[in-house]
Amino acid sequence: MTLSPPETQQCKAADDTSSAMLVWDLPLRLFHWGLVVSVFVSVGSAKTGVMFVHEKSGLTILGLVIFRLIWGFIGSPTARFSHFIKGPSAVFAVLRALFHKQSDTASGHSALGGWAVLALLGITLYLPLTGMVSSDDILYEGPLAFLLPDMMRTMTEFHHYGEKLLFILIALHLAAMAVYYLRLKKNLIPAMVTGRRRGATGIPATVSRAHNFGGLLLLCLCIGGAHLLALLSL
């Protein structure tokens, strides 16, 4: 029996979906987009002087990063640091492949992307930690500022320096995505939404339903625990 054009397109779409490998687990994807939203809210609330929202978004960022650090050891294969933290030779190999327009089909982060992940995690951990002991010298003090009253001004300056570094890293991250798209015709965004990428090779991010549920529970506990720090200043 000959299929009509619409039926042929539906079958092709189904084959594409079934052949797409799971490269990012659900807790990791929720972490990623939660961090994007929280950073956006944190920067916006700081610029508009809404410090209550700034504190809450900062604590959310802290909880998200703590989750990611833990998930880097117990998450799905592609989420683990051991999967994508490589030495200089692997990083240079990625750069050479990019220069020659050779697309990397391996699941998960590349060696270069792995170090970018660590840099972003580092700055998004640094900012809430310094923010908790900072002050705007007017109405707001971080929830842990009472622990280091003589260091508040210094920590506030450090916090502001970190903001500039955050902007630089975000710009580099966006630039890298643009290079992958323009040079390799590789859009990295859909996989972080659906978790799947067509043509991917290597280890999938498949985990059991219980493992996924445990990751979601851990994510909620880390965020909730971070927000409990605000109670220390009451």
Report on this structure.
With 234 residues, the chain is mainly α. The chain has one domain: Fumarate Reductase Cytochrome B subunit (Up-down Bundle). Helices cover 68% and strands 2% of the residues. It contains nine helices and two strands, in the order αβαααααααβα. Strands 1-2 form a two-stranded antiparallel sheet. Helix 3 (51-74) crosses helix 6 (111-131). The chain is globular and about 55 Å long. 26% of the residues are buried. The model is unreliable at 1-18 (pLDDT under 50).
Query: Span between N and C termini?
Result: 74 Å
> Strands of the largest sheet, in order across it?
1-2
Number of strands: 2
**How would you state the average pLDDT, rounded?**
88
Helix count, DSSP H or I runs of 4 or more residues = 9
The radius of gyration computed from the alpha-carbon positions, rounded to a whole number of angstroms, is 21 Å
**Largest β sheet strand count, sense and barrel closure:** 2 strands, antiparallel
In the CATH classification, which architecture applies?
Answer: Up-down Bundle
Query: Which segments are poorly predicted (pLDDT under 50) over 5 or more consecutive residues?
Result: 1-18
User: Overall 3D geometry?
Assistant: globular
Please, how many domains?
A: 1
CATH topology (fold) name: Fumarate Reductase Cytochrome B subunit
Task: Please state the oligomeric state of the protein chains shown.
Answer: single chain
- Report helical residue fraction: 55-70%
What order do the SSEs take from the amino end to the carboxyl end, as H and E? Answer: HEHHHHHHHEH
